[in-house]
Each structure stands twice: as C-alpha cells, then as structure tokens.
C-alpha cells in the first residue's frame, strides 16, 4: 500500500493551484505529484479547509456582535451604524462547455462572481461564490442566503438608534455602490444629478467606508 500524501504537500499544492490557476499538468513539475493525485488532494484539501474555518468566517449571530462591527466602522471610517461593506468581484474563468453566454460578463470575459461582506478591519463576514458573471452585483446578492436572511429579519440586526451627536434615529445598514438596491438596511450613494453639499458629504463618507471591501479584494488578489 502506498503512503498517504504528506499534509505539507497538500497545503503547498492547494493554495498554489488556487492562486495561480496553473493546470495539474503544469503543477506536477514543481510539486512532483501526478496530475491524477493533484486532482484528488486539492479537492480534499479545499473541503478540509472549509470545514476547519467555518466557525471563523460567519455572519455575526447577535446584536452585541453587530454593534461591535458598527462601532469599529464609526471609529475607523467615521460612518456610524454600518454593519459591513458589500461588493462583488468577477473571477475570470474559461468558458464552461455548452454554457453559451451564461457566464459572459460586461467586461467581455467569462466569470463567476465572488460576493463579500467585509468589516472595518478588512475581515470577511460573508462570502458567496459561483453565481454567473452575466448577473449584476445587485442580482447576485439577492440570490444569497445572506440577503434572504436579511429580508426575513433573521440576522438579529439591532433596532434603529440615535446617531452620535444627533436627535435623529437611523437604522443599522450595509453600504454598497450604485449597483445595489436601496432598502431600509442597504445604503448606496446619491445620484450625481441630485447632489447638494450635504449629499456630497454623505457620498464621500460612504465611499470612504466602502473602500474596505475594494481593498479586501486587492489584498486577496495580491
């Protein structure tokens, strides 16, 4: 009976494959592992990583944790009552066989979408990957379990509270760009056609806070 593949080989091969997109045939030369074995151990290792990290990457389960997220957005990015910055990133793929234009996106490539909610520290709170790149970000988010739980009121989001230094009451919200739909718990920038001084300041603050999700994708790619 052959010896099992050492764990350090699995942990080197899997991130290298995921990060570079190299084929098994190409990867076999640097890993000294057959393409057939790589096909097995990379899938097995991805499943093991997902199981090991599922308790570390999850949507907050209590009002207390949500308030902690909002406090950090207020302290670091001066945007109160923010529960996370939301955006999607197209992950380029080869056109799947017999898929037609299903995965063809507005950039002229084929892709799936990585949708993420990120906190003030560039740490991921929610990830959903695999939706067709043909669908807009606003459409992708509506097909996630996160959004369904938000609409059904199952996320334990704190009730509206007064804004700091103000008598106005405001809900806790997620922030996004123009591609997403405006709701009670989803905020996006004002359109350029309606800007005044106050709205321009709001857009600046929102864009500044929302930058964490753009930076997160940059960190992930690098």
From TrEMBL:
One Pfam family linked to the record: DDE_Tnp_4
Residue ranges annotated for the DDE Tnp4 domain, each copy included: 86-220
Cofactor or coenzyme needed: a divalent metal cation
Keyword Metal-binding included in the entry's annotation: yes
Keywords for the protein's UniProt record, in alphabetical order: Hydrolase, Metal-binding, Nuclease, Nucleus
Coiled coil residues, start to end: none
GO CC annotation terms, alphabetical: nucleus
A GO MF term: nuclease activity
InterPro entries: HARBI1-like (IPR045249), HARBI1_dom (IPR027806)
Localization: Nucleus
Keyword Repeat on entry: no
Family assignment from sequence similarity: Belongs to the HARBI1 family.
Matching PANTHER family: NUCLEASE HARBI1-LIKE PROTEIN (PTHR22930:SF269), PTHR22930
Protein name: Uncharacterized protein LOC112680458
Species of the source: Sipha flava
Gene (UniProt): LOC112680458
